[in-house]
Each structure stands twice: as C-alpha cells, then as structure tokens.
Amino acid sequence: MSVLVGQKAPVFKAAAVINGGEIVPEFSLEQYLGKKYVLFFFYPADFSAVCPTELLAFQRLSEEFEKRNVAVVGCSGDSQFVHQKWLSTPVKEGGIEGVQYPLVADPSKTIMQNYDVLAGDYLYSDNGEVAFRGPAMAYRGSFLIDKEGTVRHQVVNDLPLSRSTEETLRMIDALQHFEEYGEACPIDWHQGDKGIK
C-alpha cells in the first residue's frame, strides 16, 4: 500500500456525474487547486448495502464541508451511467437520491490503481497473459487534499469496514488549525482545543 501523504494527489480526467445527475466527460480535481480543500473518497460499488450509508452521510454534512471550504468527491469503478441511475433512485429503494457532490466513474480501475486502493492485483503469466485476482473494486479510501493539491491525510479501510464522518471532519479541522496557527494537534484534538507549538 502506497502512502500518498506529503505528495501531490495523482491527477486524472474522467467522466463524472455532478449536481445529482449531470454527466460531464472530463472531470478533474485540478479545478479546485488554489480554491478549495478536497475530500476525495473511494467506495466499492453503487447499489450495494454499506456504500449508500456513507454517501448519504457525507451529503447530510454538506453544510459542514461548505463551512470548511471542502469539496467532497466520490469515486468507484461504476460507469457514469450507473452513477446517474443510482443518484436518481430513491433512498427507500437502495438509491442515493439527493446526493449533489460529484461521483467520478473509474471502470478502467486506473484512478484506483494510482491512489493504491484497488482491492486485488494483476497477475502476469510468462507468455504475457494478464488475469486479475481479487474483487476488482475500491477499498474504502479517503484522501484529504489541501488547496495546493497535496495529500495531507489518508485512510484506507477494508471492504466491510465503513469510515467515520466525525473523524473526517476532525482531520479537516486539525489541518486547518495547523495552517492558521502553526500548532500541531495532539491526540483526540477537537476544534476549539489548544494545539502544541
């Protein structure tokens, strides 16, 4: 597993669904450079059991992210058309209707590979044949990217282990506290606590 903390976030251009249903052919995180922090997160699959709980939770916190000047962007191996269908499906039917932040399509698994969150790996035979071993979907990876495009925090969970919205916000607050005051944040630090010079 690669550690991307301290490095520039891998660049990509890919199809995405924005504003709850509009498909754009070339979405990129570069549009946020110099303007916003980015929470870029991966999830295993659309129309699954656990994933909607995460995507809907991030949407419910949209005001908190906006207050912190954070753009939330999701990504899975599903196509933009599957994303669009999922976004138009009511929550009571397993959909995520109401989610407004962008969902990036990565059916080639290239973005997952570049962020090193692809569950499984490619096997190459002596005669040049390629096979894939594993579920071929994204682990639950989250990457906090600063305004300069540098990854400042990452966490990657196995497929059955969901993430914490509280911890996600805490890490954003810690990064912004450090940037504003130059103070490191000790264990279990929360917004309003003292930092360490």
UniProtKB/TrEMBL annotation:
PROSITE patterns: THIOREDOXIN_2 (PS51352). One of its GO terms (biological process) is response to oxidative stress. It is found in: Cytoplasm. It holds the Pfam family 1-cysPrx_C. Residues 3-177 form the Thioredoxin domain. The active site is at C51. GO terms for molecular function: thioredoxin peroxidase activity. Keywords: Cytoplasm, Disulfide bond, Oxidoreductase, Peroxidase, Redox-active center. Gene3D superfamilies: Glutaredoxin. Its main location: cytoplasm. GO terms for cellular component: cytosol. Belongs to the peroxiredoxin family. AhpC/Prx1 subfamily. Thiol-specific peroxidase that catalyzes the reduction of hydrogen peroxide and organic hydroperoxides to water and alcohols, respectively. Plays a role in cell protection against oxidative stress by detoxifying peroxides. This is Thioredoxin peroxidase. It comes from Rikenella microfusus.
